[in-house]
Design goal:
Elements (H helix, E strand, L loop, with lengths): L1 E6 L5 E7 L26 E6 L5 E5 L3 E5 L6 E5 L10 E3 L2 E5 L3 E7 L5 E8 L20 E3 L3 E5 L7 E6 L9 E6 L13 E3 L2 E5 L20 E6 L6 E7 L9 E3 L4 E9 L5 E9 L5 E9 L10 E3 L5 E5 L2 E5 L17
Antiparallel strand pairs: 1-2, 3-4, 4-5, 5-6, 7-8, 8-9, 9-10, 11-12, 12-13, 13-14, 15-16, 16-17, 17-18, 19-20, 20-21, 21-22, 23-24, 24-25
Length: about 350
Amino acid sequence: QRVVHRQDPSGTWTFEKVDDWDLSDKVPHDCVRPTAWFPKGECDPVTGVMPDHQGLIWWITRRGRIGTLNPDTGKVQGTQLANEEIQNGMSVAADGVYLVSDHAMYRFAADADGKPVQGWREVYDRGTGRKVGAINQGSGTTPTLLGERYVTITDNSDGRINLLVYRREQDYAGNRLICKLPVFDNNASATDNSAIGWGRSIILENNAGYTSAFAQKDWQAVHGGISRIDIRADESGCDLVWESKERSPSVVPKLSVGNGLLYFYTFEPQADGENAWYLMALDFASGQTRFKALSGVGQAFDNNWSPITLAPDGTAYVGTFGGLVALWDKGVNASSEPARLSEK
């Protein structure tokens, strides 16, 4: 469906469905519903939708189906990865569509008729099992695009996961993998969120030990760790620039290039057994903690894998187990003009 928001004559904002398309010919959907508690067919609902630069709408499913929709003609086309799952989102650039399965990293593009065509494929170390908090045995990161040349994910290696950086060019003749760098501590290393990419810099958070706001019992198991890794200018590898011990168990973080701060959502255990939750900022250049602003105390303020969203006015929005939280600057510092990051 395509849904738009509009303001009616009274000034009230409303959502309105303006288009819908039937994918049932390509996507089996015999799923549990009130009229069928025990379906016998295949259930493979769509888990990601993104537009591309040619006007097509791409979609993916949990069981490895990849397809396109032409919104002008309604034509739906698709393909399926053999015995692979997709549990992350996809990233779209002018040069292609990038996605990661539980076995490999892929580049796709559409042919002249709009059909998805597989480009390069790079297998990674998927480890020997599913880690705590992960959905399946594979990478937990939606691919992050850096500029026009690089794409990065993490693998699911036992012990310590690795940051992987690839060259995106379809016709690249050499080794596509620029670097494979172990991150975080041994046997306490996992991430299930997309990395931040800026210039040649990559920011990763460690989600090891966290499950969900519903199921988490052992908060000491949430090991923590946030790292900045830079790609070398000569593409000979990558280097760890800094590592913070802050614990950001599940948020999709954000970078403000306007003030050079990285925004995370962290917690501190309290004497009564509850957790106090904070919006936390790290300095992009040094990794030092710049501030923590209290969001609230208790399970209701656990963000449960939801992202931070930064608004143009500087407000940070965080979806939590109990609702939506908004935090913003106040006082004289809010009106000052900070130095803006420049991309390398």
